[in-house]
Design brief:
Helix content: 25-40%
Number of helices: 14
Structural class: alpha+beta
Largest sheet: 8 strands, antiparallel
Strand content: 15-25%
Shape: globular
Radius of gyration: 21 Å
Number of strands: 19
Length: 456
């Protein structure tokens, strides 16, 4: 059979179909990580699920590689591809909330900012990320670590259903009662099984939180990490804070003469009763003197977007990560050696806690296979100037090499780089073989391979 033409694709799709011959092509192919510069053959800006199904059919019939772009935040650049077809979901951002049922449905291109705005109107929330600009789908399908993980589990633990376009162009409803094996795989198996055009979530009562960042001198980093290691084991599950290394940005709450200095910081999020927030934060402040802070009650969406300005689109990105069960003295020593060398105000190391509610989910109950991990640190190299790529990538690699021997073999797939394909089995963890079986059932020819790929 002859391969379909772009004109035939355009006849099936209601949204824009863009090629290199069209105006706006360069804007359409640009993604969050400016290190990624790829030239797709076709970009389909889907307006609905039918457009997505048509695009998947076209890619399959044309024997063309396919990339799925939701929020466009993929650090390895999996949302775009050379010479292939990009399904761009950025025009599908509707979020609908059922407050009586405490559920929400987000289209595949919605960001966490979109989601939080819709759910906050009803004083409801679910676990999202640490910033608000990533896509709901990409973060959730990879697991979904955020401020509310310890109290409400990972984002994928709150995923109760989905609409998925599979490799054969079918549109499937996915729930505990329908295509349940696919729902299991979507809870941590990343984008290996189809295009999630809508995701359904359970929500929790939450309007305001108490928290924000606190800056400490580097000389207190050892004390802070050791305190955190002990505190987080049995801290109230409404607490979701983490330590980090950070160059001070020029913000008004930081003394002007300290702008540009490097600190160890602690970002706190107390999602329990607001009148208990100050006492929770005082436990952190008791560890060492605070140089600067921006802490208090605030709407949850305000905390979830507080760092958006530090990480705008257009930076260079290179990240590495491993899961950690026990934060050993040797691991802390490695962090104390490399963390203070953070090379740019955008770069950081965050050490997220993923115990509490996330550990009460059995490893067999979802595809996320690292339920025994306590921490998910990420060494996030981000900087504006490509001239700094070599030096700053070296910082990430050296930091990673120093901490990896004190960590688990696998890491969070959403933090994995394009050079981590040899770690796929370890990164998906205990459920990898079962994921392969689901992959064979829904994508036996591996059409959706431009990801942290589970080979059928």
């Amino acid at each position: 059979m002859p391969k379909p033409t772009v004109d035939q694709l355009r006849a099936r799709v209601s949204g824009p179909v863009i090629t290199s011959a069209d105006d706006g092509y360069d804007d359409a192919r640009t993604v969050y990580n400016a290190m990624i510069d790829r030239r797709p053959a076709v970009i389909v800006r889907a307006s609905d699920t039918n457009d997505v199904a048509a695009a998947v059919d076209y890619a399959r019939e044309a024997d063309m590689a396919i990339a799925i772009r939701g929020g466009g935040h993929s650090v390895p650049g999996f949302g775009t591809i050379d010479d292939g077809l990009v399904v761009d979901l950025s025009g599908m951002r509707e979020v609908s909330v059922d407050p009586a049922a405490s559920t929400a449905r987000a289209q595949g291109g919605a960001t966490w900012g979109d989601f939080n705005a819709a759910t906050h109107e009803h004083s409801l929330a679910t676990t999202g990320g640490i910033i608000s600009t990533p896509g709901v789908a990409g973060l959730t399908l990879g697991g979904g670590i955020g401020y509310l993980t310890r109290g409400h589990g990972l984002a994928c633990d709150n995923l109760i259903g989905a609409e998925v376009v599979t490799a054969d162009g079918r549109v499937l409803n996915v729930s505990a009662d329908e295509n349940a094996d696919l729902l299991w795989a979507l809870r941590g198996g990343s984008g290996n099984f189809g295009v999630a055009t809508a995701l359904d979530f359970g929500l929790h009562p939450l309007a305001d939180v108490y928290g924000g960042p606190m800056f400490f001198e580097l000389e207190h980093a050892d004390d802070l990490f050791r305190w955190y290691r002990e505190f987080i084991v049995d801290a109230p599950e409404q607490f979701g804070g983490f330590p980090a290394f950070q160059i001070a940005p020029p913000l008004p709450f930081i003394p002007e003469d300290r702008h540009g200095d490097t600190f160890v910081i602690f970002v706190a999020c107390w999602a329990g009763p607001l009148d208990e927030g100050a006492a929770m934060i005082d436990q952190i402040k008791a560890v060492a003197p605070v140089v600067a802070e921006h802490v208090g009650p605030m709407p949850y969406p305000a905390l979830n977007s507080a760092f958006d300005g530090l990480v705008p689109a257009g930076l260079q990105h290179y990240w590495k990560a491993n899961f950690v069960r026990e934060l050993s003295d040797a691991a802390i020593d490695a962090h104390l050696e490399y963390g203070p060398r953070v090379p740019a105000v955008n770069s950081t190391m965050h050490m997220y806690p993923i115990n509490g509610a996330a550990q009460r989910v059995s490893a067999e109950d979802s595809a996320f296979g690292h339920r025994d991990a306590t921490f998910a640190p990420v060494i996030a190299g981000m900087w504006p100037d490509p001239a700094d790529n070599e030096a700053n990538i070296a910082w990430v690699k050296e930091y990673y090499a120093a901490t990896a021997p004190h960590s688990e073999e696998g890491g969070y797939v959403n933090f994995a780089g394009s050079d981590d394909q040899d770690r796929v089995r370890a990164n998906y963890g205990a459920n990898y073989d079962r994921l392969v079986a689901v992959k064979r059932a829904y994508d036996p020819d591996n059409l959706f391979h431009h990801n942290q790929n589970i080979r059928p």
